[in-house]
Specification:
Layout (H helix, E strand, L loop, with lengths): L2 H24 L4 H4 L6 E5 L2 E10 L9 E9 L5 E7 L7 E4 L7 E3 L4 E4 L6 E4 L11 E8 L3 E11 L48 H9 L1
Parallel strand pairs: 2-10
Antiparallel strand pairs: 1-2, 2-3, 3-7, 3-8, 4-6, 4-9, 5-8, 9-10
Length: 217
């Protein structure tokens, strides 16, 4: 093969590889397109894809309060599907679902997606969060859909810090504020000197001479 032919073949190969790379970046719900969070679980069953799944706890281990299940739910089908429940196998913790509007069911539209967790999104709140796995572990989570059924996966348990701050529980502990109310001192509560009706040595008493003079008149 001549040198020019070899150069042409190499150029064609490079072009094909470049096109393949671009196609991969633009295809579907891949990590680059979705900006996948660090240490996030993902799975696909039927028309439903679940990505970026995590259990986000309070920022501190000793903090009281709820935890949440955060994830992005994709519906690749032609009919909407309702997220009926989220459960944590092996735990007695219960998960309460709330739509983005605060009422109604969490519905993933056909060809669309729903985000669980974060301000203005739907939520899956673990009320008794102490029963959930501790940060650093993997918690079994089952998403139950109206048509796809149950979809299990292992979600990483992370505290609501750094990247996950915006996806953590909406009810976070607040440090108690010191009272700035002024308290009266002891000196301020004293009785003013010379108050009316106060008995003391300053009381004026008529002398005997003045009394006698008054009687003579």
């Amino acid at each position: 093969m001549s040198r020019s032919l070899r150069h042409g073949a190499l150029a064609a190969t490079a072009t094909v590889l470049s096109i393949a790379s671009l196609t991969a970046c633009g295809a579907g719900n891949d990590a680059a397109t979705l900006k996948v969070r660090p240490d996030a679980a993902a799975t696909t069953i039927g028309d439903i894809s679940i990505q970026n799944a995590n259990v986000v706890t309070q920022p501190e281990l000793t903090a009281e309060g709820p935890a949440v299940v955060s994830a992005t739910l994709f519906n690749n089908g032609t009919k909407p599907q309702t997220l009926e429940a989220v459960t944590l196998p092996g735990s007695s913790a219960s998960v309460q679902l709330h739509a983005a509007e605060g009422a109604g069911q969490v519905v993933v539209p056909a060809g669309g997606s729903v985000v669980l967790g974060g301000k203005g999104n739907a939520s899956a709140v673990i009320e008794n969060a102490r029963e959930a796995a501790k940060a650093g572990n993997v918690q079994s989570v089952v998403f139950k859909f109206s048509s796809a059924g149950e979809i299990p996966l292992g979600a990483f348990v992370v505290p609501a810090k750094s990247y996950f701050t915006g996806f953590g529980p909406s009810t976070l502990p607040v440090a108690p504020q010191k009272s700035t109310e002024a308290k009266p001192t002891n000196s301020a509560s004293g009785t003013p000197a010379g108050a009316p009706g106060e008995s003391g040595s300053d009381e004026v008493t008529p002398s005997d001479a003045a009394s006698a003079s008054a009687e003579s008149h």
